[in-house]
Structure formats: structure tokens, C-alpha cells
Amino acid sequence: MNKEILEKIKNDLLIRKQQIEKDLAGFTKKDEFIKDNYRSEFPDFGDKEDENAEEIATYTDNLSVEFSLEKTLRDIKNALERIDKGDYGKCAYCGKEIAEERLLARPTSNACIECKEKLTSQ
Question: Mind listing the pLDDT tens digit for each residue in 21-69?
């Protein structure tokens, strides 16, 4: 893989990682017991009935966003680990090189197009 492209991907991943961590810090706290896990905080809008309903709706929405961001963050960290190990850009299933175009479009990908198609068609 072209070193310039690899460096660009790594920088993009680091920026995205930092942004996700910042986003998560806005409505969660890091879990002290489980590594790389966050816990959404329950909002406090007041004691009125409509405020309680809004708290529940906001908390439910935050949980969904939290889970999505956590998954993306794990994928980014895994991609950065593969870059550091020198394994980045190889398909985890067949071992072939993943196309640079695919990695530029989806830098966290760990599967080539052929293997991904097989996995999703099952």
C-alpha cells in the first residue's frame, strides 16, 4: 500500500477517533469497570410529568447514539492497531489486499469486497 495513502488514512482515523470521544463525553461517562465502554447519563429536566417523559425519550435516544458511536470507535481503534502492526489493508478472511479505493471510502474495513459480499449474502 502507498505510504502516503496509509498516512492519510491513519490521520483521518485519528481525527475521527478524537471527534467521537469528544461527542461521547458530551452525554456519557467512561465506564470505570469495562475498558472502552461508556454509560449514558440520565438527564434531569425537572419533576413535572412532561419533563420526566422528555428525560426518558432523551435517555433512550442517547443510548442508541452511544452504542453506535462505541461500535465506530472500536472499529477505528482496531484499524489503527492493524496499521501499527503492519496488517492494515489485508482481508481478515482471505488474506488478499483490500483495494485502496475501498479503504479510502471505508477506512475501518477489514474485508475485501468479495469476502464482504459473501458474508452479507448468507
Answer: 999 999 898 877 777 778 888 877 777 777 788 888 888 999 999 999 9
Angle at 70 between CA 72 and CA 31, to 5 degrees: 155
C-alpha–C-alpha distance, residues 64 and 34, integer Å: 18
Q: What angle do CA 118, 70, 101 make, to 5 degrees?
A: 45
Q: Is the dihedral of CA 46, 51, 55, 56 positive or negative?
A: positive
User: With contact defined as beta carbons under 8 Å apart, do 96 and 64 qualify?
Assistant: no
Cell of 101: 479505493
What is the reported pTM? 0.83
